[in-house]
Fold these 4 entries.
Entry 1:
Amino acid sequence: MEHGIKPSYPRIKILEYLITKRSHPTVDEIYSNLVKEIPTLSKTTVYNTLNLLISANIVRVVASEENETRYDADVTSHGHFKCEKCGAIYDFRIDVGALKTDDLKNFKIKEKNVYYRGICEECLDNIENKI
Amino acid sequence: MEHGIKPSYPRIKILEYLITKRSHPTVDEIYSNLVKEIPTLSKTTVYNTLNLLISANIVRVVASEENETRYDADVTSHGHFKCEKCGAIYDFRIDVGALKTDDLKNFKIKEKNVYYRGICEECLDNIENKI
DNA sequence: TTTAAATTTGTAATTATTACATTTTTATTA
DNA sequence: TAATAAAAATGTAATAATTACAAATTTAAA
């Protein structure tokens, strides 16, 4: 694994899960799914691994208003949209460089997050169908 | 109180606290400070009241990557900057209308949040002073 | 003043996360 | 290969945030 992290089996599987299922899962989701494959997996290992991947900048936490920590293996700049109906989190391309503010001119900005809430296309369609 | 919420004493005090101290406090901060004035105050009331104010759109939660829910009585559009050193959250003016993305063209966007992380001016000054 | 409704309170339950000691695995070296 | 040391994973317990809910209190209405 990159960034000097030893590629143990659980670590590979956890990162793999994040990369393939791009659903911004919670610890619970990751654990519940992987424990089928790795019966000895413990939730603490999932926490440890995610925190390790975060400090290595391979994974980041999705900023939100909820008390659910969700993880994302895509650390390139993009926005997150959370659907209020189905709870899904969508990625979207956004140019955070276009965001300008004079208020922070003497601040050191390390990270810019953009987070939207609303109703996704699919749920809008479902609502319409039911009326 | 506006929005059809009955202005009880705890409710007024909680909203007043949020409006005057614009520090985006946690429930704990609000409770700890107000209990001095209102000795019978319970933390459940703080939670209840904040959730009530949120559903009335008088208060909003600050989106972040941390597991700390912080509240803001300013519901007009602005960004939040969190300092990694001192933990303070700063408001800043930002034109979220300038954010455009084609990826969400069939989505209903209800709320746009902008959240930055980094080091604030004050902490940058302190670091420089110590070197 | 009585009654009903709304609000607040306190305790218990739930959930997410971290702390930490123990066990297991992996890598190293004799 | 066996012994040893280091790293990683595990499981349990502790902590903290939040919600559920029933009881008590306050407020408003009749």
Entry 2:
Amino acid sequence: MASASNDGTAPDPWHAQLGALGAFIRAQRQLADLSLREMAALTRISNAYLSQVERGLHQPSLTVLRAIADALGLTTDQLLAKAGWTRAVADDVPPGQQANTEASIRSDPRLTEAQREALLGVYRSFIEGRSGRSGG
Amino acid sequence: MASASNDGTAPDPWHAQLGALGAFIRAQRQLADLSLREMAALTRISNAYLSQVERGLHQPSLTVLRAIADALGLTTDQLLAKAGWTRAVADDVPPGQQANTEASIRSDPRLTEAQREALLGVYRSFIEGRSGRSGG
DNA sequence: GGGCATTGCTTGACATACTTATCAAACGTG
DNA sequence: CACGTTTGATAAGTATGTCAAGCAATGCCC
């Protein structure tokens, strides 16, 4: 049912990406010698849905993706990169001496871990942006 | 208009991450001097939904996340990191650095005025509402 | 030949992401 | 003050992700 074959509308590229992602997941699962149900038990995701994801019928949410990567012993980066979701950006920023503000944020007791991360992210993105960015 | 940052909702880690992600997106958008509707036009995502994402009310899908990253000139990875996707590689913080974060931000020569204001805004929004909440 | 467990897959119901239309407040103009 | 515009936020609806339950096929034991 509801297969996207007869849609008629513009074929969004996500179909292809989903196919690749699903195939990759399936390959990894079989490598690990897991059945759908076993993997379902590991990920707390229904075998039904896993099946659909592996066949590229659905776009899994971040939560699901993470659970899958976790169960397969992969990093989430590997999963997405394999599927072509992340644009690889060889853009490493070695933190040289810009430690003043960063250190303050890191040691600020008023921030929760999540907040700390977010704030550091904002700050770093500010600094990185000035160093020059490859236009695409 | 409630619109207060602190709703008193359940403190699931899920929520914290979403809040961080939303705050980050909002900061970036304002840095780029975009309104919600302008950004909506760029991302093809409704301003309404963008508003909800920025306030941490929803967990955006990969597609949406990517569109946002694209519009803001960020890499998908940067956004993904805030979305709780990457495991935080906690860096060590040199002791003795504990100081006034606000002051550090203010005196940071690497920040422009606009960035300074944005960062301070995020920081203040974080620590707002937790004042005087020490009992437990 | 008949059972029973295990495999991947489909179906129908629900939860959540996402959209279109609309709102109230803040801005400026005459 | 009336008017139009722009802002962020809300409501109700649509699309899509996700699950629990069940089906056809395969393999094993009798």
Entry 3:
Amino acid sequence: MRIGELAQKSGVSRDTIRFYERNGLITSTVGDSETNSYRNYKDDCLVWLQFFAGAREAGMSVADLRSIVEATAESCDREVARAVVQRKIEELKERANQIGNVVRFLENALSGSG
Amino acid sequence: MRIGELAQKSGVSRDTIRFYERNGLITSTVGDSETNSYRNYKDDCLVWLQFFAGAREAGMSVADLRSIVEATAESCDREVARAVVQRKIEELKERANQIGNVVRFLENALSGSG
DNA sequence: CTAAACCGTGGACAATGGTCTATTGTTTTC
DNA sequence: GAAAACAATAGACCATTGTCCACGGTTTAG
């Protein structure tokens, strides 16, 4: 599919898709038309982009995402990939914990001074 | 207390403290020495800074923090403050949820392709 | 055929959240 | 009293994460 369709389906803007591509989060191929150099995106790009959107909201950096993408590439060791992802999971859980602390602090502040 | 002590106790760098102060997260007063213009920070600055550190880790922006600080100022309506803080709490909980989704996605990816 | 919509490339611009440096003056410590 | 540590201010600088714009070319719809 072309970038416009991908953008529309994923809800991620063309510019951001290109930005992600420049940063190695997704890849595309140049189609074989002789008249243009439009790029082609496979379905898994859509899946990734949807994941990226959620992950960014969850506070993961583009660098984090890249490390996951890279680790899970076909060429990579399964065990290494597993370790990288596991690590990110731990970090996310820590972050969730931290959010819990902050929420408790704020709730406490509310009831304490209310 | 002076900025150095505050930095050391809070674990937040002088530069960052000044940055926060410029952005209205904390305030200080100029001491009454005739020879210098060193600023004075009260104990509650330390409490705030510790909160800020956790809140930033939890993904809150400086603007978020400012809105909390401003809403909870003495001069402000208790009910307004409560509403602002409650709103932030909801946002944090949403974020925690989002993290949960991402974690589940990643855990699934691990067990799915493992 | 023509206008509208699309595409690629490249680079400028912007907001956020700091960090570092330079300069000048003050305290503290030896 | 000299050196080391601290302080204030101002401004430069940096990475991150996009967004926007201009350009020239392509495809599609009417």
Entry 4:
Amino acid sequence: MDESTTAGASGSEGHQGRLSDYVYESLKDQLTRGAYSPGKKLPIRTVAETLGVGSTPAREAINRLVFEGALVMSGPKTVIVPYLDLAGLYEVTQMRLALEGLAAEKGAANATGETVETLLKLQEKISLSLDEKRYRDALHVNKEFHFTIYRLCGMPHLLSTIEALWLRVGSSFHDLYPEFAEQRYGVHNHMVAIEALAEGEASFVRAAMENDIRDGYRRLKKAAMSRVGHRAAPSG
Amino acid sequence: MDESTTAGASGSEGHQGRLSDYVYESLKDQLTRGAYSPGKKLPIRTVAETLGVGSTPAREAINRLVFEGALVMSGPKTVIVPYLDLAGLYEVTQMRLALEGLAAEKGAANATGETVETLLKLQEKISLSLDEKRYRDALHVNKEFHFTIYRLCGMPHLLSTIEALWLRVGSSFHDLYPEFAEQRYGVHNHMVAIEALAEGEASFVRAAMENDIRDGYRRLKKAAMSRVGHRAAPSG
DNA sequence: TTGTGATTTTTGTTGTAACATAATTGCAAT
DNA sequence: ATTGCAATTATGTTACAACAAAAATCACAA
């Protein structure tokens, strides 16, 4: 790069390694936080200038997110944050049930006492976050809870595919914030999962996690349906 | 592009649309045909010059394939065709069972008499190809057979994920050619699937397809194990 | 006010050069 | 012969400019 120092100077962020990855992680972070409202356009040059990098890494990151389904194309040269779509939500949920169910059951076989300890601590964090209405934190720890179980199976390909699915639905989570605390999302299923894990009942762990996914689906579905009316006029 | 006509002239291929896609499809095609032996390096400039394009579309296509798992990085700046790996093969097989099982069962619910006709014709083609030892054709029609069923479920995201899995194992198929005809790969399972489909027994269709995947896994596994000895010295 | 066509602006794609670093080669010492 | 290190080559990454096409804007007429 002929101006490698410029990016660091103008952006002043403490990143290292490939700029493509930096842009990718930045956008991914914003998306999973629901910072972008559905329909928002993300042109290459705008993203590049915002993050103080050239158009090449910005383009690569955006294309990667489009490929993953975290962003969608509304036209031949227009990339936007996807609208919540009932059919797509159903699809992703079915895939999540299949793959996360698999990961949970396989992972449960490798659980240790330490795993149970970790999960209990994470669940406490979730409850505390819900109490204090720190929804973003709750969401973050909730993800950590799931993947703590899934990671046990030792299948990195499976893990990355599941992460891609989370990224796909992630941009819809901001609709859940209000209801998130009141419904004590996931508390019951998580406790059941922990108990089953401690008892070595792998299939029960799977069922608990699947129920958790289904419960989340019902909430996302409601949010999606309530927005169908607003979707006719995508104002960008 | 400042020399858009150069690419078309030098390559003289009849492609249109994005050059990235052209490179991607070309490489994908070579990989699924087993044209590249595991360990082969694929540098950006080499691929670009071979196909008569700039380095940008070549880079994008290669990165995409790496992301999909069809190519792997053996070092920080070295992309190679992946070696057959037992653990990875197991992973992909588990994922295939989960997702293709899902697609088969959901798809079976939407099957029609026409579907059965199509599948029977495809199966005839497979048998004919096996008789005449046209393994590549058999492999191609075999894929068409599977996806004819999977497409019925009407879940494009699921379909594309399954396709990515096929691409991952695709580069290993060339090891199967000799045994392919003798074992009449997939014939029995396919016929069971067709019958179950005609009778509307969705779960039986799923089971038949899953058995087909397991049978293929056993063969790929044998090929992988027989090559472990040669893998210590990746000659490139 | 609304629809339609032309004009202007925006934007994705691609080739290229420069740079840093990984990969390779060559050489010398043991 | 083999190992370790230095020099050389090869290669991925990035910024940038030019181009084509899409998107937005605008003007004008119904």
